[in-house]
Design goal:
heterodimer; A: about 110 residues; mainly beta; 4-stranded antiparallel sheet; 11 strands; about 50% strand; B: about 110 residues; 6-stranded mixed sheet; 3-stranded antiparallel sheet; 9 strands; about 40% strand
């Protein structure tokens, strides 16, 4: 059974850093496109970043240069390193599998506030 | 401002057929397939339609998708109260050198 479980969210001050994790089971992270999608409170979905099976990475302009997507094949886990956090990064962050985003995790809340 | 344009709201009565539109451009919908997601209140989004008109296993055939040029549509027939949710379209975009893009979402109300 495919499962995605995010962790690492929490309260952080503006300018701070946080690393989100997405533990996968039932498939291999390295063999799939893997994405991070976020949803600010009361707002729509924003596709933040994607890592291809070949390792190429892409970012939305809103996070480029501040966020880094990566994966650990031995742990079958996806990561999102978030630096220089801003208030507008406050959102629930979801990880999702494949180019279709066919499976999603339950999400982890990141709050950027002083 | 979302790259893909959806109406913010839609509504219908039980049993009715409703459609939700999604408008894009030649770099996204015009050259890539469209996916649709359903988000029930307080839950993660769920894939509803992929590759314009394909339903994942378990999705009722009341849900259907179509695409023409730079626009796409989601149709829901035999509307049920449990269909009340937010619906999002998404597509890859060849011009952005980034991940895919979403529509702003449509809140469907079952009257």
């Amino acid at each position: 059974e495919v499962q995605l479980v995010e962790s690492g969210g929490g309260l952080v001050q503006p300018g701070g850093s946080l690393r989100l994790s997405c533990a996968a089971s039932g498939f291999t992270v390295s063999g799939n496109y893997m994405s991070w999608v976020r949803q600010a409170p009361g707002k729509g979905l924003e596709w933040v970043s994607v890592i291809y099976s070949g390792g190429s990475t892409y970012y939305a302009d809103s996070v480029k240069g501040r966020f880094t997507i990566s994966r650990d094949n031995s742990k079958n886990t996806l990561y999102l390193q978030m630096n220089s956090l801003r208030a507008e990064d406050t959102a629930v962050y979801y990880c999702a599998r494949s180019s279709f985003l066919d499976y999603w995790g339950q999400g982890t809340l990141v709050t950027v506030s002083s | 401002q979302s790259v893909l344009t959806q109406p913010p709201s839609a509504s219908g009565t039980p049993g009715q057929r409703v459609t939700i539109s999604c408008s894009g451009s030649s770099s996204n919908i015009g050259s890539n397939t469209v996916n649709w997601y359903q988000q029930l209140p307080g839950t993660a989004p769920k894939l509803l339609i992929y590759s314009n008109n394909q339903r994942p296993s378990g999705v009722p055939d009341r849900f259907s998708g179509s695409k023409s040029g730079t626009s796409a549509s989601l149709a829901i027939s035999g509307l049920q109260s449990e269909d009340e949710a937010d619906y999002y379209c998404a597509a890859w975009d060849d011009s952005l050198n980034g991940p895919g893009v979403f529509g702003g979402g449509t809140k469907l109300t079952v009257l």
